[in-house]
Automatic annotation (TrEMBL):
Belongs to the XPF family. GO terms for molecular function: damaged DNA binding; single-stranded DNA binding; single-stranded DNA endodeoxyribonuclease activity. Residues 1-13, 445-455 have a biased composition (Basic and acidic residues). One of its GO terms (cellular component) is nucleotide-excision repair factor 1 complex. One of its GO terms (biological process) is resolution of meiotic recombination intermediates. Residues 1-27, 437-457, 496-522 are annotated as: Disordered. Keywords: DNA damage, DNA repair, DNA-binding, Endonuclease, Hydrolase, Nuclease, Nucleus. This is ERCC4 domain-containing protein. It is found in: Nucleus.
Length: 936
């Protein structure tokens, strides 16, 4: 480790570019002056209490704090008005964000019990009890929409809705659908409109497409846009430099020469791929914003932009262009893995990539790629001959009796990641200062203050918090700190040698490698026939990296089980970045080591320091010098600043097409309104003329399976004036009439259903119970309206191709009708046409279709007695089929009781030992777990 580049420190780090934007602040009347909230947080809450709207904050600037402030203030308003049982609804929050909101709420109010999260875990009766009690409720949009449509949720008691992560909201999303239903219900009750507050801390996602922020505001029925960037004047006053700068220590760690060579090689390959892409994609893709002279493709998500274009013009894009885009994504991930993975794991990842994609990937054969592989091997081992032997001893005889040199041997080179030793030094420095430095006395005062306030503090009084990118990095770093870098690398190298030797033995024979390459080559065309999606590309790299990290976690577990304690790290806590939890309030650290740069977490530290000014705190900002992570961090700051500048300019000319009183909450299409116009007119007198009568024909009804509310089609149907009846269906997804039943499949669902055989069972049930079974294949409006392209079709018929599977499906079920829908709106129009001259379905009858007669009574009460989430899990387990899952529900009270049953008991319930063995083996399979990440 002595030959590693030394890190240099700089404590006067400029965290972000600053600019003064003048603004005025109203009096803080709505929110009490509590220490936990900074002035700009109270300012935001008071503005939104005066007039609700959409608030866009900088990344990590306290979205949960603003949400908690709004909820606490609205609760006080309701209490003053005598509405003790009013409900406040929170949508769009992740699990860690819900915990963060509860943490802040407990500080703002006297209530100590956490708010409830209403999900499928609760029965209908339990949810009704929650609604009667009122208070703050977190919802999944699926449950909220279903309970509103079934009249179980009393809209009259809802006083406000907070939507977190509002950048994801659209008119057809679950959050947008929920807001529309709530406002529609409030309008029908002739009550005051419900307050809707939207919060977002991802400004770059609101400027990525045309009119993105306007669409979000339209979905939330918001008329005001509040912008709070980091460079706003009020934020600067709340986060003064004189408080923040002394506690920040920037530590820049140079890369090792071999790592620098690998990074340069990957950059060269990336530039070559970008240049080649501009050449081959000319006329098919827009590559005008791609600069091949720098490394923009490495830290800007060029890959996602390109795949978005390819999805919209898939038939015109060649195979070579798609492969280059995949290669760009592969290279971006490899650069990130270089800085994070152990040298041995990174080398195994490269070898896996070359073995899997070597036939179709051209960049692997470039000179730059050769340097990448060569220096990756040099980080792990070197091939050396025994020069100390004499000339005769250094040779051996072959089968012909001739002398030949002895083969070179692998000599391991344990090159650790440079940050490992750096983090260890920082921890030693922190412990030294806590023992005899000025922070020791300050920390004792903090503990006395905590005892005075009667707050429960963690078990460790001087925790050291290490913020890492993911759990795999936390496991890796914990093992290094506990056992030492040399021991960890030696263990990885031994595992690498075992895998390499076993691979050589398994391939065996002269043509073993050729046969293996041939099998891989035959498997590649099948991959090209699958639908294109940005999340599916580079699956080899993603899965290989995940497999390597899982293997490393098992190795760390083995080391922990068979080794003595090397060091004590009870005072070290690991925090995974990206979960947006209030870990700082829970841990109250003295030292924070930011192992991986993250803008959101840095903002959280800033806010925490200014809120807790009496507490000692030091932040070590660790990053590799002149590396991809440094470029990414700078790019994230610049991207956010640019996004706010665009939002500020757009706000000046923004048109918001929403009426002030929100009276028109459900837009009706012209075709739907005109359909029954003739039915509502009668002759006024003998000479002619028509008079509109007051009665209206009821909206056409569609019965929708509850599971379909995870998609956006029910929201579109409701917007097109359909009456939606949610219920649990055994057969089909949508029932349009007593004769028509529809099974809806997106493109990805279609492939998955064919592969699992589920579609065959579904079509068999529909054909048996309905006169007109329909398979609806629905495309994305942003993708090409075509199942396959000409490049995906071979010269011969392939039974595994999607078109062949559809043909076989029609042959088996000739009464099946297939409908191809271009988009969600096209599906709504098709449903409108199919509903012509058709009766409305009976929800009770539709729910009984496919249910055995002896189980129909159970079906009627299943909504109240059974846990729908547990039923969904049960039906996905191996060995559980549509024919036996009801028997399982009748025999066992819970999944836990079922898992404790023997194979013989399961065989009696499942109808055979084969299904029982599959289920029993699945439930009792060993699951690797890690003990190295401790949470507060």
């Amino acid at each position: 480790m002595d030959d590693l580049p030394r890190a240099h420190r700089r404590s006067d780090v400029e965290l972000e570019p600053c600019a003064n934007v003048p603004s005025t602040s109203p009096d803080d009347e709505g929110i009490a002056d509590v220490p936990l909230l900074l002035p700009f947080h109270r300012h935001i809450a008071n503005e939104m209490l005066q007039e609700d709207g959409l608030c866009v904050l900088g990344t990590g600037m306290g979205q949960a704090r603003v949400a908690a402030a709004l909820l606490a203030a609205q609760e006080k308003r309701d209490a003053k008005m005598g509405a003790q049982n009013n409900m406040l609804i929170v949508l769009g929050a992740s699990e860690t964000q819900r915990e963060g909101v509860d943490t802040v709420l407990q500080q703002l109010s006297a209530k100590q019990e956490p708010s409830r999260f209403v999900s499928t875990e609760y029965t209908s009766e339990a949810r009704n009890a929650f609604y009667a009690e009122g208070g703050i409720l977190h919802f999944t949009t699926r449950i909220l929409v279903v309970d509103i449509l079934t009249k179980k949720l009393p809209i009259a008691t809802v006083s406000g809705v907070v939507v977190l992560n509002a950048e994801r909201v659209s008119e057809n999303s679950g959050e947008g659908f929920s807001v529309r239903l709530l406002l529609e219900g409030a309008a029908e009750l002739d009550r005051k409109s419900i307050s809707i507050w939207g919060l977002s801390d991802s400004p770059h996602r609101l400027v990525g497409t045309f009119g993105a922020v306007e669409k979000v505001m339209k979905a939330l029925y918001a008329r005001r846009l509040y912008l709070w960037p980091r460079f706003k004047a009020e934020v600067h006053e709340s986060l003064p430099k004189e408080v923040l700068e002394p506690c920040v220590v920037e530590v820049s760690q140079p890369l090792t020469p071999r790592m620098q060579a690998i990074q340069d090689g990957l950059w060269d390959v990336m530039k070559a791929c970008l240049k080649e892409l501009r050449r081959v994609a000319k006329g098919t893709l827009d590559t005008s914003d791609i600069d091949t002279d720098d490394t923009c493709g490495l830290f800007r998500d060029v890959e996602e932009q390109l795949w978005r274009q390819i999805r919209g013009a898939r038939h015109t894009v060649g195979t070579k262009t798609r492969q280059i885009v995949r290669d760009i994504g592969t290279l971006r991930r490899l650069v990130g893995h270089l800085l994070r993975l152990e040298p041995v794991v990174f080398l195994k990842l490269l070898e896996t990539l070359r073995a899997a994609e070597g036939i179709s990937t051209v960049w692997l054969y470039t000179d730059a790629a050769h340097h990448v592989f060569e220096f990756s091997r040099r980080r792990v081992y070197q091939m050396k001959r025994q020069h100390t032997l004499s000339a005769g001893q250094a040779c051996e005889k072959d089968k012909q009796g001739e002398l030949r040199p002895l083969p070179a041997k692998m000599h391991p080179i344990f090159e650790p990641l440079p940050k490992w030793n750096l983090v260890k030094e920082i921890i030693e420095e922190a412990r030294s200062e806590l023992r005899r430095g000025p922070l020791a006395q300050a920390s004792r005062k903090s503990r006395e203050t905590d005892r005075t306030l009667k707050k429960e503090r963690p078990r460790v009084h001087h925790p050291i918090l290490i913020a890492v990118q993911d759990s795999a990095t936390a496991c890796q770093l914990y093992a290094v700190l506990k056992f030492g870098a040399d021991k960890v690398l030696e263990k990885s190298y031994q595992s690498y040698q075992k895998e390499k030797n076993s691979s050589v033995r398994s391939q065996g024979g002269k043509n073993g490698g050729q046969r293996q390459q041939k099998r891989k080559a035959e498997a590649l065309p099948i991959v090209s026939a699958t639908p294109i999606s940005a999340t599916a590309v580079n699956s080899i790299v993603i899965e290989a990296a995940a497999a390597q990290e899982a293997a490393q976690a098992l190795e760390y577990q083995e080391m922990n089980d068979h080794s003595d304690e090397v060091g004590s790290f009870d005072d070290v806590y690991f925090h995974v970045l990206g979960d947006r939890s209030e870990v700082l309030l829970d841990i109250s650290p003295i030292f924070i080591v930011m192992h991986d740069p993250d803008l959101a977490f840095l903002r959280q530290v800033e806010i925490y320091k200014c809120e807790q000014r009496g507490r000692p705190l030091r932040l070590y900002f660790v990053q590799y010098e002149s590396s991809i992570e440094e470029f990414k961090y700078r790019a994230s700051v610049e991207r956010e600043t640019s996004a706010f500048e665009r939002l500020i300019r757009g706000k000046a000319t923004m048109l918001v097409p929403v009426s002030g009183d929100r009276s028109q909450v459900v837009p009706r299409s012209a075709a739907t309104e005109d359909q029954f116009a003739a039915d509502n007119l009668v002759a006024s007198h003998r000479s002619g003329g028509w008079l509109s009568i007051s009665t209206k024909k009821a909206r056409p009804r569609i019965v929708v399976d509850i599971r379909e509310f995870m998609s956006t089609l029910p929201a579109v149907l409701h917007q097109q004036n359909f009456e939606i009846q949610p219920i649990t269906l055994e057969v089909g997804d949508y029932v349009l009439s007593s004769d028509i039943c529809i099974e809806r499949k997106s493109i990805s669902d279609l492939y998955g259903s064919f592969n699992s055989g589920r579609l065959f069972t579904q079509m068999e049930a529909m054909t048996k119970n309905y006169k007109i079974p329909v398979l609806l294949i629905e495309f994305d409006a942003n993708e090409t309206f075509g199942l396959t392209s000409s490049a995906d079709l071979g010269d011969t018929i392939n039974a595994q191709h999607i078109t062949s599977k559809i043909a076989l499906l029609i042959l088996h079920f000739p009464r099946t009708r297939i409908i191809w829908s271009r988009s969600l709106n096209a599906t709504a129009d098709i449903f409108q046409a199919l509903k012509s001259n058709q009766d409305d379905p009976d929800p009770t009858v539709a729910a009984q279709v496919g249910v055995p007669e002896e189980d129909q009574h159970q079906k009627d009460i299943s909504e109240d007695l059974y846990n729908q989430a547990a039923i969904d899990v049960l039906r996905k387990l191996p060995g559980v089929t549509n024919n036996n899952y009801r028997q399982v529900m009748s025999t066992f009270k819970s999944l836990a009781e079922m898992s404790a049953a023997s194979k013989e008991d399961l065989a009696k319930v499942l109808g055979g030992m084969q299904n029982a063995k599959r289920l029993h083996d699945f439930l009792h399979a060993e699951c690797p777990r890690s003990e190295y990440i401790r949470t507060s």
